[in-house]
Design brief:
Layout: H1 15-56
Length: 57
């Protein structure tokens, strides 16, 4: 019978998995940061437009 989970005896086989996990986590955090920064910039721009429209009324 084949084992469902494979835990290698040689722990160096985990190194590529850990490296790829770290790379993807850094990419996810960078993407989150960029989206949040763009969102704040867009919010500020819309607030300025809203203030300009309120002053023109």
């Amino acid at each position: 019978m084949m084992e469902f989970l494979y835990f290698p005896e040689d722990k160096t086989e985990y190194i590529p998995a850990v490296i790829s996990l770290i790379i993807f986590m850094i990419g996810a955090f960078a993407t989150f940061y960029l989206i949040k920064r763009a969102s704040l910039k867009e919010e500020k721009r819309l607030m300025e437009i809203d203030e300009k429209n309120k002053s023109n009324e």
